[in-house]
Amino acid sequence: MMVLLSAKMFGEITDSSFTAATMVELLHTATLVHDDVVDESEKRRGFFSINALWKNKVAVLVGDYFLSKGMMVALDNDEFLLLKILNRAVKAMSEGELLQIAKARKMDIKEEVYYEIIEKKTASFIAAACTVGAASITQDQNTLDKIHELGTNIGMAYQIKDDLFDYGKREIGKPLGIDIKEKKLTLPLIFALQNATRSEKKHIINIVRNKSHQSKKVHEVIDFAISRGGLEYATAQMYTYRERALKILETLPQNDARNSLEALVNFVTERKK
Length: 273
Known about the structure:
It contains twelve helices and two strands, in the order H-H-E-E-H-H-H-H-H-H-H-H-H-H. The chain is mostly helical. The protein has a two-stranded antiparallel sheet with strand order 1-2. Helix 2 (15-38) runs antiparallel to helix 3.
């Protein structure tokens, strides 16, 4: 949707637009398969992950296959600009994952580092999806830069919303508290720790580091983040990114595609799963 709506804003959808959409779908699938291996996740959207069913070796190879297939779609259609845009995103996503792993070991993720991680891991790919859509219609660099910024803000809002789900009470296709169990410090908890006493901070970090396999302890961390205003703060930051995205949309051509993108931006922050 991001690819095709971004294309449709600037003209009629072309074969190049469909090539861009195909590349994004294949590359996105590859990253999801690899993410499940890295995170040792047994579920993906409520279903068993590939690594849960066929182990890591098969999952890594399947992810590699989708990655190469996505690149070949670009090369077979001489879409070198689209490949360049998406390749940069894949590079950023890998950097973001490595940064998160490095910081998780030390448990010292600051708020600015969190934003850097999610911009690389999530927002870069949504930005690339929007940009390749627009690039399939226009090569105007100012336009492409604006679309990239739009996608970045959408992606930041999307990931913060996704992290908020970790502190919810409903089933959303991934286990609640999974980020805590995987020793990932996300914005609600980062904010709560910033506003905690030294002893509280030491206690919570000790739980995340050594006791995150215990369901009762995970719920203690969730309750701590909620009581310290972590959810309210993260929600406010999410809406800030959404408003930035909507302001950029206001500067783009007025048509049905823009209206649909606006609805999609609002859906990103109001979705229930």
